[in-house]
Amino acid sequence: MDKSERKRVWKGGKKTLPLYIISTAVLLIFGVVFIIGYFDLWYVKDNVDFTQSVEATVTDVHSHGHDGAYHYDLFYEYTSQDGIYYSGTTGYFEKREEAAEHIGEKVRIYIDGNGTSVPSLAYRNTPNIWILIFGIVFSVLGFADFIIFVIPHKWKYE
Taking all residues of the chain, what is their mean pLDDT, rounded to a whole number? Predict the structure, then answer.
């Protein structure tokens, strides 16, 4: 058999990815998402001016979900006098028609002067340390999973 025709498979002849590789990837992804989310919340807290709000216009409805389980958010847009464009979503509706009734309405948002906006005063609070802790725990578990299960397995050629 020519070397180019051989297939690379996991030791033991399995042709599917083992569960521990999938779990490693999922744990590392969760860890990264939580850690990035934590630092994004700190950015908003430190850079958005919560003393002044502006009015943005609801221009569209965005849907989220799958398999028939959707929810709808109001999409807002705002352009500052400096020409900086802001957009985002707010609200939570189970019916598209109910959300669509709000198109054209004004919503209060808070901006940072660089294109980031938030529609709620809740972002001005110190980010919850549990978000960072979850991120670190998921990352450590992902790395441990990688070291304990993935590294010891070797590839072989059939």
Answer: 83
Q: Write the CB contacts of 149 (distance below 8 Å, at least 6 apart in sequence).
A: 18, 20, 21, 24
- Name the token pair of 127: 């980010």
Give the relative orientation of helices 19-47 and 129-145 as an angle to the nearest 10 degrees: 150
Alpha-helical segments (H) within the chain = 19-47, 96-100, 129-145
- Please give the C-alpha separations between residue 34 and each of 24, 46, 54, 65, 122, in angstroms, as whole numbers: 16, 19, 29, 20, 18
Whether pLDDT at 2 is above 80 = no
Which amino acid type is present at position 98? E
The whole-angstrom separation of Cα 99 and Cα 82 is 30
pLDDT tens by residue, 7-16: 555 555 555 6
Return d(Cα 111, Cα 92) in angstroms, integer: 21
CA distance 156 to 158: 7
pLDDT for residue 43:
87
pLDDT at residue 154 above 60? no
Could you give the CA distance from residue 46 to residue 40 in angstroms, rounded to a whole number? Answer: 10
